[in-house]
């Protein structure tokens, strides 16, 4: 019985410590410029169509940050025949311990170099191959 209690306490401590940023953890793999960390995003724009080049997204830091997304950097945008992949970026946090409640969503307006056309808009954090994202990271057209 005592071993079981210790195992539960140990597992609980592991879960809590997993969300503490000690500065030792690596940010998600990214094409982010120096000083940037990949974030996730949701589409805020309504009424997009094939001719759209302007859109608004809501960016949220994934890592523990005390509830704040912080400074949003210019995104990395990759175009191909079937997709437009938008990798949202946020400024790297200073070393420290942060609580792990959900971070706020920061709106960002983007102007694409090309119209959307019949391509999907993909959240870059979901690459490669959809990662652990719902609907493979497709943000438009709505699945």
Automatic annotation (TrEMBL):
It comes from the Bacteria. The keyword Signal applies. PROSITE patterns: PROKAR_LIPOPROTEIN. Keywords: Signal. Residues 1-21 form the signal peptide. This is Ig-like domain-containing protein.
């Amino acid at each position: 019985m005592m071993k079981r209690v210790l195992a539960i306490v140990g597992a609980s401590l592991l879960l809590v410590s997993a969300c503490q940023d000690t500065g030792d953890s690596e940010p998600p793999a990214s094409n982010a410029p120096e000083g940037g960390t990949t974030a996730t995003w949701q589409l805020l724009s309504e009424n997009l169509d094939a001719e759209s080049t302007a859109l608004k997204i809501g960016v949220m830091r994934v890592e523990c940050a005390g509830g704040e997304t912080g400074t949003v950097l210019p995104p990395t945008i990759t175009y191909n025949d079937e997709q437009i992949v938008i990798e949202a970026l946020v400024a790297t946090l200073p070393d420290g311990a942060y609580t792990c409640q959900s971070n706020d969503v920061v709106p960002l307006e983007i102007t694409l170099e090309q119209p959307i056309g019949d391509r999907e808009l993909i959240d870059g954090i979901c690459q490669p191959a959809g990662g652990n994202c719902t609907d493979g990271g497709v943000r438009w057209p709505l699945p």
